[in-house]
């Protein structure tokens, strides 16, 4: 079938809306009409690394309505309203253990530009267009996805507002609720309150974390963080960021989350912990960094990595939806909606920081 997709053709070329060909569903695949899709920093990073000779359709925070299902798909039917998340194989030991975000085939299924057999369902004039990005490639009017990427939701769920739940939101929120698991007597410092950091903040407030500190370079973002429940906001450009966090948390944070993937900020996050505190990293930045070992051996601090919130989306996304329904997760306060045709405006606003979480609406 012919669909409209935002094709990335190199780092310095804007997305172009093009007519491309999408294959019919294979036995284990589902065809979804995309209603909305979030724009995530990972989309933009991927666009920057795929060369012009490898055009790709990214997008991995899709939401929509099922059009067709493959012959082997069960539990999903045409007309179902769905949120889309990352792909996992379902067969490896990590998937079997309930940790699909650490799937042994994660890279192949999500970032290789194709399915597990390295084919792509997308083409243009007979030439391959890279796809299957995070199992989705949802910057398109339709997406062909593995059944495991689908979370079926009630028809009254706002698909536009909740589209980002499948990646950025569950990454930040899951890092707090599933990895850190702080309590009412604990403190949390969040370094970087973009979309992922804001999701972490809202989740921390939803579960009643005692003290929440937000650190960012943007005064506008810090104002939103304050509105969403941050007890203390700190300008990340200040020379005494670590001292301010320690003072705000009465001796250092029990937990810290870094969303920036910047080594100097990560170092501050580690330093701002109290003894036995834990720093969780969710971003991808430099391949290596220096760590002051005394923080670990002398104070019992820990650094922990986290992919997609370390959650099972089939269980965690319903929790996010419940919080949203109860008013505990006001994602609308950090979102701005754009028509699909204005995708490059949405990207520009995200890069300059004027929009925290852009969401594209498909016609």
UniProtKB/TrEMBL annotation:
SUPFAM superfamilies with a match to the protein in the record: GroES-like (SSF50129), NAD(P)-binding Rossmann-fold domains (SSF51735)
Key words of the record: Metal-binding, Oxidoreductase, Zinc
Cofactors that this protein relies on: Zn(2+)
Pfam families given in the database record: ADH_N, ADH_zinc_N
Gene3D superfamilies: Medium-chain alcohol dehydrogenases, catalytic domain (3.90.180.10), NAD(P)-binding Rossmann-like Domain (3.40.50.720)
CDD domains for this protein: benzyl_alcohol_DH (cd08278)
Oxidoreductase among keywords: yes
Domain called Enoyl reductase (ER): residue spans: 10-360
Superkingdom as given in the UniProt entry: Bacteria
Protein family according to the UniProt entry: Belongs to the zinc-containing alcohol dehydrogenase family.
Name assigned to this protein: NAD(P)-dependent alcohol dehydrogenase
């Amino acid at each position: 079938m012919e669909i409209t997709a935002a094709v990335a053709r190199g780092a310095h070329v804007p997305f172009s809306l093009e007519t491309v060909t999408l294959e019919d569903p294979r036995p284990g695949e589902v065809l979804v009409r995309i209603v909305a899709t979030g724009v995530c920093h990972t989309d933009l990073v991927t666009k920057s690394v795929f060369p012009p000779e490898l055009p790709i359709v990214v997008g991995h925070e899709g939401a929509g309505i099922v059009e067709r299902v493959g012959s082997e798909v069960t539990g999903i039917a045409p007309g179902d309203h769905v949120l889309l998340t990352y792909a996992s194989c379902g067969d490896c030991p990590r998937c079997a253990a309930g940790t699909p975000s650490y799937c042994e085939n994660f890279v192949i299924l999500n970032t290789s530009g194709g399915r597990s057999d390295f084919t792509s369902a997308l083409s243009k004039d007979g030439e391959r267009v890279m796809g299957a990005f995070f199992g989705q490639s949802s910057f398109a009017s339709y997406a062909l996805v593995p059944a495991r990427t689908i979370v079926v939701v009630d028809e009254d769920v706002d698909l536009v507002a909740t589209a980002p739940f499948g990646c950025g939101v569950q990454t930040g929120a899951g890092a707090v609720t599933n990895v850190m698991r702080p309590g009412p007597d604990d403190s949390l410092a969040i370094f970087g309150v973009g979309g992922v950091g804001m999701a972490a903040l809202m989740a921390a407030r939803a579960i009643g974390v005692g003290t929440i500190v937000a650190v960012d370079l943007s005064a506008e973002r810090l104002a939103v963080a304050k509105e969403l429940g941050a007890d203390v906001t700190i300008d990340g450009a200040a020379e005494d960021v670590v001292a301010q966090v320690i003072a705000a948390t009465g001796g250092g944070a029990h937990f810290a989350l870094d969303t920036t993937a910047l080594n100097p900020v990560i170092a501050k996050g580690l330093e701002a912990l109290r003894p036995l505190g834990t720093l969780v990293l969710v971003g991808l930045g430099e391949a290596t960094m220096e760590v002051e070992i005394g923080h670990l051996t002398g104070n019992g601090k820990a650094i922990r990595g986290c992919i997609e919130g370390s959650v099972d989306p089939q269980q965690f996304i319903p929790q996010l939806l419940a919080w949203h329904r109860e008013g505990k997760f006001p994602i609308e306060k950090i979102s701005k909606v754009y028509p699909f045709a204005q995708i490059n405006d949405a990207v520009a606003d995200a890069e300059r920081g004027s929009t925290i979480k852009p969401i594209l609406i498909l016609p």
